[in-house]
Write a structure and sequence with these properties.
single chain; about 475 residues; alpha/beta; eight-stranded parallel beta barrel; four-stranded mixed sheet; 14 strands; globular; binds 2-(hydroxymethyl)phenyl 6-O-phosphono-beta-D-glucopyranoside
Length: about 475
Amino acid sequence: MQSKQLPKDFLWGGAVAAHQIEGGWDADGKGMSIADVMTAGANGLARDITEGVMADKYYPNHEAIDFYHRYKEDIQLFKELGLKAFRTSINWTRIFPKGDETEPNEAGLQFYDDLFDELIAANIEPVITLSHFEIPYHLYQVYGGFRNKKLIDFFVHYAETVMTRYKDKVKYWMTFNEINNQADGQHDLHVWTNSAIRFTEGENKEELIYQAGLNELIASAKVVKLGHQINPDFQIGCMMAYVPIYPYSANPDDQMAALKTMHRRFYYSDIHARGAIPAYILKEWERKGYHIDYSQAELTALKEGTVDYIGFSYYMSGTVTTIDNLAGHPSNDYPNTKMLGNPFVKASDWGWQIDPVGLRYTLNLIYERYNLPLFIVENGFGAYDKVEADGQIKDDYRIAYLKAHIEAMKASVLEDGVDLMGYTPWGIIDIVSFGTGEMEKRYGMIHVDKDNQGNGTLKRTKKQSFDWYQQVIATNGQTL
Ligand code: P53
């Protein structure tokens, strides 16, 4: 008989990242991370990356929502919500403040011991990202970030330290968050947060990002292998941003342009999952005369460290065309490719196209491609919320977004047969936006009283979506 229900052990959860939630940026021996030098931008305005922390600038991640000091109360709310899993990251600089030390900072290790104990006591499974835009700033300053192969060893040493320490507390791991965000090498912020790289004058950005990405993929593979030695029960995944790119029209060139644009993103998960550099990339490097440095031993490492599952974020889809008289942003994937809006879908206030069918499409596409378990570790709706005079927050637009996406996800499992481990919507509690540094681009089901300038009491309030999601979890997705 065909099952009409999601698996009983489906991991309903919520997701965040350490730098967007913790604050305590220099507490208890923590070092400066790449997120600590990112100023606040705004809707449509990029964040600045400063050389060190400057006295006259506002850095929203320094305090964030002060989870570092309030995690016990917050976990009580997660428990009330019924979360079965909570995805966060370990803030690398709490463990190795500079990144190149041999000995870890015990106070940092103790913090995550306490945090994981608290989650486990609340029956919540920790799902841990090792690197979510929190590379030690020192590794940029002294080594130039992941352009330098020394970072492979620093990352492996850090991962080995925390995987050993938490081997009985954490089962689900991911290596590099949204490693493919930097794919085209054109967005300075993404290159910074993925790789701790700032370009120098005259550098070939694309070539450099291929090198840095490959260095990270090698580091990831080594950690997957090592993690399985530390505890064979570990489930270690990658973490990809999947933004499916559709052909704008039925023009065969648009189909090809969409495929080539997807290749650039798939490059990362193809290596994570298959353990080899795909032919389409080797050909591209050859065609463009790129010299990407890798050894035979590193190729072996890639092969020996393929992931157990594919973790990914899904927020939106995109569209490309090659049709001459249509205006869009130029892209370098296929001759004359442009990215442009999709007339069939609406967008959020930040221009992110809302496309629940795209989630079902992506789940099918990825499952067919890798035949590995999938885990949706981010999905959600960044929106402006209004606190009513009586204190209520009626975020029915967020419920509508999540409901449509959960329906699409259920269809992929129940009708298409996708093997899906869980669903952890993004920013379960309001946090600092990664892209803009805003507090008021909110994703949460729990509101945090703080504005874009950093004012507010930090008080937590349940939104309408809190009660809704509580029912969703309690009924294993039956009541939406
Ligand atoms: P914010 C682009 C496309 C998909 C996911 O983003 C992305 C991005 C980056 O802008 O990032 C992820 O906060 C990332 C999170 C981030 C979240 O999406 O810009 O893993 O750290 O907060 C949402 O709205």
